[in-house]
Amino acid sequence: TVSQLGFLIGFYGLGTLGLEHDFFQILNHVFYKGSLFMVAGIIIHSIGTKDIRKIGGLASVMPLTAITATIAGLSMAGIPGTMGFVSKEIMVSKVLELVTVNGGGIYWLFPACLFISAMCLIATSLRFIYHCFYRKIQDSTLSIHKPKLMFQLPPFMLSLGALFLGLFPETGGHLLNQLNSGIHHVSPSHLAIFHGINEPLLFGLSIIT
User: Fold this and answer.
1) Phi then psi dihedrals of residue 181, to 5 deg
2) pLDDT at 183 exceeding the cut of 90
């Protein structure tokens, strides 16, 4: 949460270049982070501990929550097919535009910091998903209480928002254009699942790999 707030404040500091990203990333953050917070609550309620070193194998006990955490976690990591990837593409394009407009130099510090921060975010996300749901349970003495379906549905519905807008970003693009048009940006970006092989795509994929 702290890192994402840092992204948002940093992009507000870029002025018009960053406002487009902030609008979309706030919506992205609502979907995936709200979902993950509730997933964490479900895990703690069902196991009675928040020590990730003891947890594991929850996918077999609460498969719906495992799916939810996977979708939300991949969106946080910015994996293609999720809203996080579209948001990251906007972010990278604006940062590279900033470098180009100002002729490089010290401005290369911005994409460098973005690269390192994004890698840390991916590592955190994948560690959470794997350790909690897909590896063997680490403490066999833990008593696992299977959560009810209605307890698992709200975070699942939020995660679907991150997935839907990742697969159909033009839907969110309409809202983004309404927020930007005539206020902050005369020609808002066109959102699409694929813009071709370009610098933002290669930059984003390099972070993942």
Assistant:
1) -60, 125
2) no
